Amino acid sequence: xxPLAVPAPTSGSDDRTAAAAAPRADCIADSAGxxxxxxxxxxxxxxxxxxxxxxxxxxxxxxxxxPAGDGRLRASLPIGVGLPEGRWDAYxxxxxxxxxxxxxxxxxxxxxVDRAPSGSRGHVAVRIPYATKHGNxxxxxxxxxPHAEAGELLIADGALTVHGRLYGTAFAAGARAxxxxxxxxGQVRTGELSADGSAFTLRIGYADLDAGRWDVWLRPAGPQGxxxxxxxxxxxxxxxxxxxxxxxxRVSAAGRxxxxxxxxxxxxxxxxxxxxx
Length: 277
Known about the structure:
By secondary structure, this protein is mainly beta. The chain is 3% helix and 51% strand.
C-alpha cells in the first residue's frame, strides 16, 4: 500500500480537489454492534493501520489493515474491543508515514436498526460511523453502564409517555423516574414509572415542570440506587437532535401558560424543554 498522501489543491481549485483524492472507507456494522472498515489497497507491501483518535482526549485505537481481496484492505473493530464514549476521527496510516484523514464510503448499518443487546456484560456499547460537516469519517461511540433505551414517545393530554427498556440492571422495589432541572441545581420532579421485566413506561406531566430544560433519569433500585440516563442509542442515527423532532404541547399550570416538548441532546440523551408560551 503506497503512502496515502493527499495532494494540495492547485491554483484555482478548492478543497473539493483534496477531498476527491482522500482515501475512503466503507463501513459495515454487524448485529453485535461491531464495525468492519474496507479501504482501497494501492498495492505496496508496507504495513498499514486504521487509526481512531478520540477528538476530546487524543487517545488512539489502532486496527491492522489486512488484505481482503478485491483490491481492499480490511480492519475490524469488534464490540469486545473497548472504545470509550466520544467521537473518534478515522485515519489511515502506512508504516513510516503521517496518518491521513479518511472520508466515508458506503455505510451498511442495517443491522443496527432495532438492535437488542443482551446487556449480560452489564453495559451497552454502541458505535455509529457518520460523515462530519467537513465530509470526514468519524465514529460516535457510547458506553453506558447500565443503559435505559428510549423507544416510542407519545404526546397527549399535556403529558409525555416514554416506552423503553432497561439494560445491564433490573428494576427493584422503589424504582422511580426523575426529571432534573439544568437551570436550578438540585430541583427534581418525579414521573410515573411502571415496569414489566426490563420494559418500562414513564409518564411525565408537563404541568409539573417549571420553565427550563429537564433531563430524564431512572433510578431502578430507588432513590439511593444507581442513576441511569434515558437515551436513544440503538439504531443507525448518530445525531438524533436534528432528525427526531417532536411537537410542542401547550399547558396551563398555576396561572401560567407554557409550551413543552421532548428532544434529544447532542449525546442522544432524552430531555424536555419547557418555555413560557
